[in-house]
Amino acid sequence: MRAKKRYGQHFLEAAWADKLVAVIDPKPEDRFVEIGPGPGALTLRLAPRVARLIAVELDEAMVETLRPRLPRHATLVHADFLDFDLGPLASEGPFRAAGNLPYNVSSPILFALIGAYRRLGAIVDATLMVQREVAVRLCAAPGSRDYGVLSILVQLHADVRPLLALPPGAFRPMPKVHSSVVRLKFRPPAVALSDEASFETMVRTMFGQRRKMLSNALGPFAESRQQDAAAALAAAGIDGRRRPETLQLTELARLAEFFGAA
């Protein structure tokens, strides 16, 4: 099959597909959803090792090619994962996720998985191949230049661990970037939040001006809540001269709770 640029397709070579299955470490009782199976390099290795597999593929040509090759307990769905309802799968019990994510939609898919975990609570973990720079952001700690919205919103609900690094030569056609496999192990929120939607809005607003001091970066969000940024920072015990990327999750939670209680 020829890779299509509009879908961001890069097909994994067989030897690297074997390595990916090894780090996923599937168990016979596991149930999986696979995101973007493409021609099936991962799918055909994963399916025989698990109890149930649902693979979601947007490219109709890939679906037609792969479907006849799947075992009976594997289901191939022609759909955009961002529109796919995980509710029926979650209603049957815990499941895992895996996939080689297209680079152009990796962040939306990551946020969709977080949102699904918040709603359904049934996703155990997600082992995902992403661009190396995305993996660095997912794992970034406060104080680093890579720490930002993606780091915070994912780490709020999951422990993130890098598992495997892949060179461009692991794919055909070769991408211009390196890739990494990371595992998101989902868990209850790392900090208590009374209004997670408000927390997310605050974080996105602040990191939209991440180079500014907190006293300024927090200003637009505070004003939208008819509050004073300086008062919020004082109540949370945070120096307004700091910058957003220096804040721990616990500090961000204290700030968010000020606006929730005000």
Which key phrases capture this entry?
single chain, 262 residues, alpha/beta, Rossmann fold, Helicase, Ruva Protein, domain 3, 2 domains, 7-stranded mixed sheet, two-stranded antiparallel ribbon, 9 strands, 38% helix
Give a quick precis of the structure.
The protein is α/β, with parallel strands linked by helices and 262 residues long.
Notes on the structure:
With 262 residues, the chain is α/β, with parallel strands linked by helices. It has 2 domains: 5-186, 3-Layer(aba) Sandwich (Rossmann fold), CATH 3.40.50; 196-261, rRNA adenine dimethylase, C-terminal domain (Helicase, Ruva Protein, domain 3, Orthogonal Bundle). The chain is 38% helix and 20% strand. The strands form 2 sheets. The protein has a 7-stranded mixed β-sheet, with helices on both faces. A two-stranded antiparallel sheet has the order 1-8. The model has no long low-confidence stretch (mean pLDDT 94).
